[in-house]
Amino acid sequence: MGGSTRSRPRSICSWSVFDLPNKNKRLAELEARAQDPTLWNDSAEAQKTMRELARVRDEVGHWRRTQQRTADALELAQLDDDALRPELEREVEQIEQETRRLELETLLSGEYDHDNAIFTIFAGAGGTEAQDWVAMLLRMYLRWMEDHGYKVEIIDSSEGEEAGLKSVTLTVEGPNAYGYLRAEKGTHRLVRLSPFDSAHRRHTSFASVEVYPQVEDVGEIEIRPADIEIETYRASSAGGQNVQKNATAVRIRHLPTGLVVTCQNERSLTQNRENALKVLRARLLDLKREEKEREIAALKGDRVKAEWGQQIRSYVLHPYQMVKDHRTDYETGRTEDVLNGRLDEFMEAYLRSRVGI
Q: What is the pLDDT of residue 216?
């Protein structure tokens, strides 16, 4: 029954990392606040409280159930019954997998890590090659999001002239969406034999991924009507095909910052406008966060490293097979698995590197 004994150190370590007593205390505080009849005098604050309550209640529930399963498995192990060994080994394996997942969630300590995300992929240098690379990345991320039960909506896309996509923007809704996906922010490099080159030569393509937390509290980022210009136009696909008769696509320019956001995937002008404002609000929040980080770095005397355009990961399909993350040095030769959405190991390596473990 050695399997259950081996699981004990991980369990003890995990309860310590999660700090269950303090989480229980926070849960009690939030439940008491939710019962306060004056809470809804401020609807924005009330909604924020209820979102945190739901999240903490879910977290504590998962850990309590896993803790109970661990205690039950240890009791069975003490019986030292060989007939129970196969069942107990399966249970220990499942507990270890669940504990590992929950332990990983404790690394999501950022202010917006538990929020939904807005996820954008842009083609970089490489023309048609880069646009095809965007489509490949979109497929990879959609597979990962589907496997993890996230609700995904494509709210804007621009097709390439010959193949692929120039850009695509998604909203990703579900627990910890931003916390996990922020590991993907940066430039992704592809090396392969080109399917678009008649000589079948090796090409290098680039695409950039941007990830923003989806701001739930509208009051957190104020967008004044005087600060934006809104333009409507007819959405169309590549080559001008399927042009809509009505101008439903929306382009919003934020005058103080120069940020431009477009949305055209919905047939409703109102829906596209709301989605565009949602993306703009998320980008403004991210801009505010970056400015704050630069100020702190300047006070500390740290050198500020620009992340835009930073190559974070290489996907090499020729002359050998390898995917390598240059921030963590994590790599694998199972390129097909990665392109089919197996990204958890890369995300875990990134999150652990952020906290030095």
A: 64
Beta strand 311-316 with 186-193 is parallel
Q: How many domains does the chain have?
A: 3
The per-residue pLDDT for range 189-211, each reduced to its tens digit, is: 999 998 888 777 888 999 999 99
Tell me if 305 is assigned to some domain: no
pTM exceeding 0.70? yes
Structural domain harbouring 296: 220-300
Give the rounded distance of the alpha carbon of 286 from its chain centre.
14
On whether both 48 and 167 belong to a single domain, the answer is no
Tell whether 207 and 242 lie within a shared domain. Answer: no
Q: What whole-number distance in Å separates Cα of residue 118 and Cα of residue 121?
A: 10
Pair (242, 199) in one structural domain: no
Helix (H) or strand (E) holding 38: none
110 falls within a domain: no
Question: Does position 240 have pLDDT exceeding 70, yes or no?
Answer: no
Burial class for 228, CB neighbours closer than 10 Å (0-12, 13-18, 19+): middle
What's the number of CA atoms in the CB half-sphere (13 Å) around residue 218?
A: 7
Inter-residue contact 126 to 203 (CB < 8 Å)? yes
Cα 13 from Cα 305, distance rounded (Å): 34
| Residue-wise DSSP of 244-282 | -SS--EEEEEETTTTEEEEE-SSS-HHHHHHHHHHHHHH
